Amino acid sequence: xxxxxxxxxxxxxxxxxxxxxxxxxAQVLGLYAVxxxxxxxxxxxxxxxxQEKIYRSRGxxxxxxxxxxxxxxxxxxxxPAGFCDxxxxxxxxxxxxxxxxxxxxxxxxxxxxxxxxxAGKKCAGAGEKARALAxxxxxxxxxxxxxxxxxxxxxxxxxxxxxxxxxxxxxxLGKFRxxxxxxxxxxxxxxxxxxxxxVLSLLEIGGTFYTLVPGVHLENAKDKLGILYLTELEDAxxxxxxxxxxxxxxxxxxxxxxxxSDWKRPTELIKIEKxxxxxxxAPMKLLEFEAGxxxxxxxxxx
Length: 302
Ligand SMILES: C[S@@+](CC[C@H](N)C(=O)[O-])C[C@H]1O[C@@H](n2cnc3c(N)ncnc32)[C@H](O)[C@@H]1O
Hints:
The chain is an alpha/beta fold. It contains 13 helices and eleven strands. The chain has helices at 2-6, 13-29, 32-38, 41-56, 72-78, 83-88, 105-111, 118-124, 143-152, 170-173, 185-188, 192-202, 243-247, and strands at 95-99, 131-136, 157-161, 176-181, 203-214, 231-234, 240-241, 253-260, 267-274, 284-290, 296-301. Helix 9 links the parallel strand 2 and strand 3. The site of S-adenosylmethionine (SAM) has 23 residues, from strand 2 and helix 11.
């Protein structure tokens, strides 16, 4: 017991509690693996069904914090430097995938920038337009989306819903020059390593994934005190791991992180370029999940 305690110096108290319970399970039952896996399951499932209700919410039931209609200027503000330049340079034969697109407003703005939205117009660029695909678990298309899709032709802008990114085959979706995720699957998925693995498989070599994640331990280590973290990672021994350190272990990628320590929540803006075809991601398992917008999650790197 003393050795368990001494090996936990510097580890959070929740992690210590969990490690202690697992230790007791191992001692009493001699079933470490079964015990460690089964402890949190019923609660996680309950929280995942609460999360489903948030996705399915309609009208007045949509929680105020669950934003589904950010335009392109919102994407320009939130995504890493270089996103707008890269989007503006896409050719008509290229493809842009927006994961967790909500109503698809960013794509609508890309094709038809609003006169009163200077930042969105600048981000859309003046040249050719790539084909764009919006993915959302729930169908949030508006009449404007339907009208624009009809006038542009179905192959220019597409909207897929009814399942998560991981449930599509690569053949169904194709390959993309740019993939974006603004408070979509990267912030919401309960299977984060599988999510990133899928994103990388959908990028062309030389293609880039732009995203952000709020409430994480920052790469620049300038987190303020008293932060409520939303996504926490730990290594196999229970020690905290930073999101960017984990991502930087992925093969065939070039990962850049911009730490925003002065935002309301410490937020990492993340850019991942695919540099060769054999991508792989260090797998993680879900330890905790609490529904929300975004949910709070804790993962362990396996
Ligand atoms: C908060 S909304 C963000 C919408 C939009 N990006 C915006 O900023 O207005 C979250 C979106 O992510 C989607 N989403 C969450 N997890 C996903 C996943 N694993 N695969 C696909 N879409 C996902 C939801 O269905 C929803 O469309």
